[in-house]
Amino acid sequence: MESKNIVCFDLETTGLDRTKDQIIQISMIKIEPENYDIINTYDKFIQPIGNYSIGMAAYFKHGVTPEFLKDKPYLKDVAQEIVEFFGDCDVLGYNSNRFDIPFLKCELNKYGYDIDFTNRKCYDAYKEESRRNGNSLEQTFERYVGHSMIEEGLQAHNALSDIHATITVFKHQNKTNKVEPEMMYGEDGTITDMEFRGEIKPCFTLGKYRQLSVEFVGALDQNYLKWCVSDKCSFTDSTKNFIKQYIK
């Protein structure tokens, strides 16, 4: 089967809470999977809607201010462009399964747009590197390349620079061992593979049963799983559908 092109993407946001924070930059590079040749690039700063603030921690990472964003397009104005850029491509990011994918999906859904990440391969260079060595993107880049991102002309925590660095890391990872895509049990980051009792199992990433396998929670507390799939819970439909198989 012919390999699909890969879209490597990164977000900068006003904060970490996708229920109230917003995207302020999205950068994407489409690459050919065999030689990592760049096919296309997309880079947009986004003006959040309404009264908003940029968290101090976020500002110290990316340095973007509301003044800089005041003449930039709204996400609703470029949402169709984003969806079309992804097309049917596979996906690559750095901690994207836990942060960027759920955040982007939440933001797009606000304006009636959607990307199904469960029907494509989703590679996460951060998770792969954490399993191998466990380091930040800057440290990982320097370890593989032999010099820093700054020496390479890249600025850490700028989305476009970060995805150039991520592609470089991913290319080097594949030279050592073929990187396998991550399992997607939903599109909100609620469930991901973790070590549980000596085995890798789909586990909750939040809530009172954080880091416990869904299977174990099903045996322990069926009422909790029923709440998870109810209208009272804000998990995405894909996450709820995964959880349903453990409800008796």
Short description:
Helix content is about 40%, strand content about 20%. The protein is built from 10 helices and 7 strands. The protein has helices at about 55-60, 65-70, 75-85, 95-110, 125-130, 135-145, 160-175, 215-220, 220-230, 235-245; strands at about 5-15, 25-30, 40-45, 90-95, 120-125, 190-195, 200-205.
How would you describe this protein?
The protein is 38% helix and 18% strand. β2 (23-31) and β3 form a beta hairpin. It is globular. It is an alpha/beta fold and 248 residues long. The N and C termini lie far apart (38 Å). α6 crosses α7. A five-stranded mixed sheet has the order 3-2-1-4-5, with helices on both faces. Strands 6-7 form a two-stranded antiparallel sheet. It folds into two domains: 6-176, Nucleotidyltransferase, domain 5; 191-244, no CATH class.
List the helices and strands and how they pair.
Blueprint: E1 6-13, E2 23-31, E3 38-45, H1 56-62, H2 66-69, H3 75-86, E4 90-93, H4 96-109, E5 122-124, H5 125-132, H6 137-145, H7 159-176, E6 191-196, E7 199-204, H8 214-220, H9 222-228, H10 237-244
Parallel strand pairs: 1-4, 4-5
Antiparallel strand pairs: 1-2, 2-3, 6-7
Helix pairs in contact: 6-7
What brief labels describe this structure?
248 residues, two-stranded antiparallel sheet, five-stranded mixed β-sheet, 7 strands, alpha/beta, Nucleotidyltransferase, domain 5
